[in-house]
Amino acid sequence: MSIGIGIIGAGIMGADHARIFASSVAGAHLVAISDADSARAKAVAEETGAKRALTDPFALINDPEVGAVLIASPDATHADFAIACIKAGKPVLCEKPLAPTAAEGLRVIEAEIAGGKRLVQLGYMRRFDPGYVEMKGLLDSGRYGEALAFHCVHRNASAPPHFDAAAAIVSSAGHEVDVSRFVLSAELTSVKVFRAKRSKLATFDDPMLLVFETDKGQLVDVELFINAQYGYDVKGELVCETGTISFGPTLNTQVRANGVSATQLAPDWRPRFAAAYRIQNQAWINAIMTGKPVGSSAWDGYVATTVTDAGVKSLATGETVAIACETRPGLYS
Hints:
By secondary structure, the protein is of the alpha/beta class. The protein has 2 domains: 3-124 and 276-297, Rossmann fold, CATH 3.40.50; 127-274 and 305-322, Dihydrodipicolinate Reductase, domain 2, CATH 3.30.360. 37% of the residues lie in helices and 24% in strands. The chain has helices at 12-23, 38-48, 57-61, 78-87, 102-115, 130-140, 165-184, 269-272, 274-290, 298-317, and strands at residues 3-8, 28-34, 52-54, 68-71, 92-94, 120-122, 147-155, 188-195, 208-214, 219-225, 233-240, 244-247, 254-257, 260-263, 296-297, 321-322. The strands form 3 sheets. Strands 3-2-1-4-5-6-15 form a 7-stranded mixed β-sheet, with helices on both faces. It has a 7-stranded mixed β-sheet with strand order 12-11-7-10-9-8-16, covered by helices on one side. Helix 1 packs parallel to helix 2 (38-48) and helix 4 runs parallel beside helix 5. It starts with a strand and ends in an 11-residue tail after the last strand. The mean pLDDT is 96.
């Protein structure tokens, strides 16, 4: 059995996903690529062997040869495309965020509940990253007691031109929000954002420190530094009762020369999480075949947006902001 895949969006993420499906995923084949830029859709389709290049995403969703859809289009389109896929009965892997606002995210959840089946998986690929998976496994083993605090570092070499402090919280810290809930098996209940001294190379408040509390009484802190200049650097340290569990950037090679020991850092998130994307995409296909959902659900996507919305509010007010989500529906239990 091979599942026909349609990809909406042929930008950086859509093209990367197309390459992964073309080269590294079993049980799937590319049928169609859709993008508002017809030349870009055609180029990605030709490179990856997809049968069709389209400009109409709804034509892709309703294509009878497309059995599942990956959404990698601009953020504001995610909810509408996901709902269209649900109505068509087709599984979805949607790049984050689920929707620009929590209210729009609830529309997706309502559509899934109406259909009576989970069809949406969010592209929070860190749940499949070997470092985070091993960290969670070690915590769940109980060998180191309970988790007390989780230190997270998220540094980018430089910010995209459209970024501001709010965008950094929504787009970058959203990953830490989801993976913290995953690793700790806990919910985030409040957030406060602290502004550090602004880097002279930043055009907005950068770096920042986000401090969360969980419903288990733990603290999670996230250092966001979007203009760190030296490379892409994601690290985590879990502080437990009898020890700590930590990991840093993936080590590919280490060079010792001229009195220096050095490891090259990735320029952005894609090389760092290349394995996570491959594992995620294969797990999505396996889940479609078995009927057993994996990864972040639409509910997790809604929660992440609710949390980052609270972070943006704290950024504006300087206050600790309580995080209030709707009651989790039974479909996502």
